[in-house]
Amino acid sequence: MILICGGAGYIGSHMAQWLHARGQQVAVLDNLATGHRGAVKWGELIEADLRDPAALSRVFASRRFDAVIHFCASSLVGESVAQPYAYYGNNVAGTLNLLEAMREHGVERLVFSSTAAVFGNPESALIDESHPTMPINPYGATKLMVERILADAAHAYGLRSVALRYFNAAGALPQHGIGEAHLCETHLIPNVLRAALGSGATLKVFGDDYDTPDGTCVRDYVHVEDLAQAHGLALDFLAREAGAHAFNLGNGQGFSVREVIATAGEVTGTPVPFEMAPRRQGDPARLVASSRKAREVLGWQPTWTTLAPIIDSAWRWHRDQPAWSLGPAHCGAG
């Protein structure tokens, strides 16, 4: 059985579906602070919080887990700047509690959800694993701190781990009734689609004077199903390889904000209204991943490689969102 921590959230729910479809038994651990009960369609839901060591000890004592996939985290950059104690407490201390429970009960494989935010400001057009790690906000710092803990745990305790640093997760699997359901939404594609539906706040484009082809920021979008595939491959990798490892996950190509808006207009058949706004402090002009290592070492082959199908999958989800996606989830630690 695989334990998916944070499996009631966006990527975690897609991970549960991916494993279930391949015959794997799963359990979901989530405190439902930002996740949704309705997203847990595959496997048992265990309501617990990583900040509660006693609860974790009970969970691991009551079941036998072969590996853990860890998605639980507070992940809003601006909030992390305003509330760093909460972010270190949830993302770092919570992970330490999880690692202690795993060690106590002999679970030796962990796939960790990391982020491109560990790199900070880019120093090259394509960011590979050799790029310096210099996070510029507490969120990125907490993720990098966990990566360092995992390296130490490999040496001291023999923990096998993979940290997957994604760039911009996007898309949905509407045929399975799951998608990106954040009430506090900060990601571009869902906000563009909410603008197309007329159900969100006015869409703002922050800056049009960057050194990019159309002046707006360029980002690398990777479909959530491709991310789930990478986590599954990482589990297989850890069955044969010891140590702590890190891989970048992205499509290796970037799309500008204007390109996303234009493509969303084509997909939805509706021009997407937006207004220009000044640049936001700390927004790099371009963030694009090199995923060569993941392709060569893990055998990862993304299947969603162009922008329109990614946006279309998200559009079909947002257009027909189930009632649970509009429930009482809120912004904050979870």
UniProtKB/TrEMBL annotation:
Gene3D superfamilies in the cross-refs: NAD(P)-binding Rossmann-like Domain (3.40.50.720), UDP-galactose 4-epimerase, domain 1 (3.90.25.10)
Domain NAD-dependent epimerase/dehydratase: 2-250
Entry keyword annotation includes Isomerase: yes
Keywords assigned: Carbohydrate metabolism, Isomerase, NAD
Matching CDD domains: UDP_G4E_1_SDR_e
GO terms for MF: UDP-glucose 4-epimerase activity
GO biological process, one term: galactose catabolic process via UDP-galactose, Leloir pathway
Cofactor: NAD(+)
InterPro entries: Epimerase_deHydtase, NAD(P)-bd_dom_sf, UDP_G4E
Reactions catalysed according to its record: UDP-alpha-D-glucose = UDP-alpha-D-galactose
Assigned EC number: 5.1.3.2
UniProt pathway: Carbohydrate metabolism; galactose metabolism
Broad class of enzyme this protein falls into: isomerase
Domain of life: Bacteria
Oligomeric and partner information: Homodimer.
Family: Belongs to the NAD(P)-dependent epimerase/dehydratase family.
Protein name, per record: UDP-glucose 4-epimerase
Protein's organism: Stenotrophomonas panacihumi
